[in-house]
Write a structure and sequence with these properties.
2 copies of one chain form a homodimer. By secondary structure, chain A is of the alpha/beta class. The first copy, chain A, has a single domain, classed as Rossmann fold (3-Layer(aba) Sandwich), CATH 3.40.50. In chain A, strand 3 and strand 4 form a beta hairpin. In chain A, helix 1 packs across helix 8 and helix 7 packs across helix 8. The radius of gyration of chain A is 16 Å and the shape is globular. Chain A starts with 7 loop residues before the first strand and ends in a 9-residue tail after the last helix. Chains A and B meet through helix 1, strand 4, helix 7 and helix 8 of A and helix 1, strand 4, helix 7 and helix 8 of B. Strand 4 of chain A pairs antiparallel with strand 4 of chain B.
Chain lengths: 199, 199
């Protein structure tokens, strides 16, 4: 599936993934891919390549399965009710530990931090998650230093974000880190991401 | 497809729709649906019911075709490169004019305003679009009063939003208008939509 030699970023999809956890970061990274001379590749994948039904019913067909999209340099693990389920599945946790050995930068959105924690990948690390799941994260691994204030936490080879929409901010941070703050500003301009939510 | 008697909101999908234009509003409206005692229904549809390939490659399978999801009370028309193409297709414009006769509230995200304008549905109205497409909107219909500052413009039976991510703010406004500002705040809290994009 690889068509280049640049950075490859993969957004994992699964049944019960929160729609905006998937598409917020994907949109940011895809616009980066379109604008950047680095031509990063951004793909979606499910572990077995099958289509998925997201948390609120959107059905997605991914670009491929985990093997087809490898090697990845960045993994985005969305959250949602499905992520909570994955945090209890030994086989998913074993897969994540294998991913950790191969993929330099692991990132999560919202409750995507829960399976990372359950796999032991956040042990002793600073991390964040949806504000409603902070206790759950701490219960899965009491050694995680949970930052309840941050929009996202960059702890080097693992970056976690707060709830749902925070994945957009985290993805802009990834663009700034992996290319430049100027490119992140350009992507942000393209998305006209100057939010003014109604009070 | 209808399973209730409440409000029905439909998000149109098509080839070349911008991913976040679709999923930003969908996420807001779906979380509203999950939280609200009004139990609004939120569906995705393509005009013919077929799956679509979005602007950056995400493949979506909609809930149904235009007839299956009718009657709608609110239409969300996303933008993206595909919307620009739809603005030149007489058959899509005729469909939109028919929709206007049936659907009380038409909304657009980003360049979703272009087909609305091309169909004559914004004539003499105040509206907005992606900042890069303001001239294009004015060229399609010089009688449109383009607000280049607004995040979204509520002109009664038509609500248009600025570029891409502005669809999230517009959808929160729809929740506030169609139910209450308190409910919109609750949805916003669930999405943890307190953006802090990196500079």
């Amino acid at each position: 599936m690889s068509t280049g030699h640049g950075l490859r970023l993969g957004v994992l999809v699964f049944d019960g993934a929160e729609e905006l956890d998937v598409v917020g970061p994907y949109e940011v990274l895809a616009v980066w891919s379109a604008l950047s001379p680095m031509k990063p590749q951004v793909v979606t994948f499910s572990r077995d390549g099958a289509g998925v039904r997201c948390a609120h019913g959107v059905r997605l067909l991914p670009d491929g399965d985990a093997d087809e999209v490898a090697p990845l340099h960045v993994l985005v693990h969305p959250g949602g009710p499905g992520a909570r389920a994955l945090a209890t599945q030994p086989e998913h946790l074993a897969w994540l530990r294998d991913v950790r050995r191969k993929v330099p930068l692991l990132t999560s959105v919202c409750t995507g931090a829960l399976p990372l924690a359950a796999a032991g990948l956040l042990a002793g690390r600073t991390a964040t998650t949806h504000r409603a799941s902070v206790d759950e994260l701490a219960a899965l691994d009491p050694s995680v230093l949970v930052d309840t204030e941050a929009r996202f936490v960059d702890d080097g080879d693992v970056v976690t974000s707060a709830g749902v929409s925070a994945g957009i901010d985290m993805a802009l941070h990834l663009v700034a880190r992996l290319e430049s703050p100027a490119m992140a500003r350009q992507v942000r301009g393209e998305l006209q991401y100057e939010p003014e939510p109604p009070d």
